[in-house]
Amino acid sequence: MDTRENKRPTIDDVAQMAGVSTATVSRVLNQPGAVREALRKNVLGAVARLGYVPHAGARALMLHRTGTVGAVFPTVDNAIFAQAIDALQRRLALSEVHLLIATSGYDPGSETRQAVNLVTRGVDALALCGFSQHPDLLHFLQKRGLPCVHVMVHQPDCALLSVGFDNAAATARATRYLIDLGHRRIAMLAGITQFNDRAAQRLAGVRQALASIGLELPPARVVERPYGLSEAREGLRQLMAHRPAPTAIVCGNDVLAFGALLESRCMGLEVPKDLSIVGFDDLEMASHLQPALTTMRVPTETMWSTAADRLLATLAGETPPRSTEVEVALIVRESTGPARRLPPAAP
């Protein structure tokens, strides 16, 4: 039996078919911009015909890079992170860098293990969500000198590389909008704040806005739930069970707001006549619901593309800005309206 057909093609085979040296083949594959277009097409044609795949380990040893970036997301079961992965991957691909992803389930221990696994597999840099990593992971990355960008947060006084926005300021803005509509009984349907600095900051923003007019956010008007529709519906029922019931609810993200809208309808509440609801993220579905959702718009694609740019710049030996802020915007739609006038007190 002739085994030559099963033999994997080598760089020598590519060079022989293209009529060039192995060094030229290597330049075409690793530094395509340094090779004339005609020569590059010739070599790449030979690569395609032979089905040649460069040895990743040898390439990494030669370049001292693997051409990969790792990212640890809390979950992929959320449209905002799906958009983030897409934006990050597309931007890295323009520089022929590949993305490897892992998920942590909002668990800092799992995030540490997944990040270390990615580093063990040779990623050249990491993208992480927020600043709430375990100190051991931050120490590990610092000792290795591995480029790392923290996304979805903005703290200009922090020494870590970051791209994002002020989560507290964003929900404070949404809360002030409700205050301007006359609402005073405002509640918060938050994500789980433990191990999630973005969720904690969004809750803090609601407190800050209410404090600015001399009001508090009572414990009964704060419910934390995982980011899911059924959990959000349960949270809405819990908030509305307390008396006096809130007239407006700020939600930690759009998924929680979607669940709140669904449950409001089941409870016979008319939005926004009986209850105003504000989301966070501006997912595509937000504008298609009835009523359409008022929400804070996060420029997800811009934010994660910029995060990729910061990592690529660092890998190229440049010194990018330590902190980059992206602008969020309040998008007013149909799910918010003036507070219902209360009947006058009995004489």
UniProtKB/TrEMBL annotation:
Keyword terms: DNA-binding, Transcription, Transcription regulation
Metal-binding listed as a keyword: no
Alphabetized Gene3D superfamilies for the sequence: 3.40.50.2300, lambda repressor-like DNA-binding domains
Name of a matching Pfam family: LacI
Residue ranges of every copy of the HTH lacI-type domain listed in the record: 9-63
Natural source organism: Verminephrobacter aporrectodeae subsp. tuberculatae
Highest taxon of the lineage: Bacteria
Descriptive protein name: LacI family DNA-binding transcriptional regulator
Example of a GO MF term: DNA binding
